[in-house]
Amino acid sequence: MFFASGSGSNFQAVIDAIENNEIDADISGLITDNENAGAILRAKNHNININVIRDFGTDLSIEQLVNQLSEWQPDLIVLAGFLKKIPDEITRLYPNKIINIHPSLLPKYGGKGFYGNHVHQAVLDYGDTLSGCTVHFVNEKYDEGKIIKQKTVDVLPNDTAESLANRVLSEEHKLLPEVIKQILNQTN
Ligand code: GRF
Asked: What is the CATH number of the domain that holds 12?
């Protein structure tokens, strides 16, 4: 199952990989904190269950989350552009079962405030010549769980945060299905 707050292009990349028989899996559902998330339409288009949980992080929302997850019984929980912190109750219930995709070479440019173009702008501001994306396990600390796999992207001299973001995102769309396949033990 997936968590997403935004456009859901990484979510779509995994849907596509499943539909192209590159990954043998079913997506049990999408949880979002944003009723306007583009990911919702993608889920609808592919008949994937959707649960919009408002006021994410409150006791009520944690209860809803625990109940929904125990109903869906996911083998793997994927955070794909999910902006809220996953409550500690959930990370404790699903150790080593939650992964996140982040648009930098962690441990660089991770943690609170490093999301979206803030990440890419920081890479440019520091003059890095290499960036990329990371899939890592999720624990109680934001962006600090064990790194599973990364892909690198060259930073070009004329890059803007947007142009760099686009190239990193293309690599994210390859990395996330690859890692899911690897975790589900479907690699050759
Ligand atoms: C991606 O850059 C991802 O790494 C980050 O949020 C963005 C989500 O994009 N966590 P999308 O919603 O998958 O298009």
From this structure: 3.40.50.170
- For residues 159 and 165, give the distance between their C-alpha atoms in angstroms, rounded to a whole number: 9
Q: Count how many domains the chain has.
A: 1
Confidence of residue 39 (pLDDT cuts 50, 70, 90): very high
Q: Catalytic residue among 102, 120, 136, 173, which?
A: 102
Ligand 1 centre distance from Cα of residue 34 (Å): 14
Q: For the segment 114-146, what is each residue's pLDDT rounded down to a tens digit? A: 999 999 999 999 999 999 999 999 988 877 899
Range of the domain at 173: 2-187
Assess whether 102 carries a catalytic annotation: yes
Q: What is the largest CA-CA distance in the chain?
A: 49
Q: How far is the centre of ligand 1, averaged over its atoms, from the C-alpha of 123 (Å)?
A: 17
The atom number, within ligand 1, closest to the CA of 133 reads: 4
> DSSP letters along 150-170, please?
EEEEEPPTT--HHHHHHHHHH
Q: Which atom of ligand 1 is nearest to the CA of 102?
A: 4
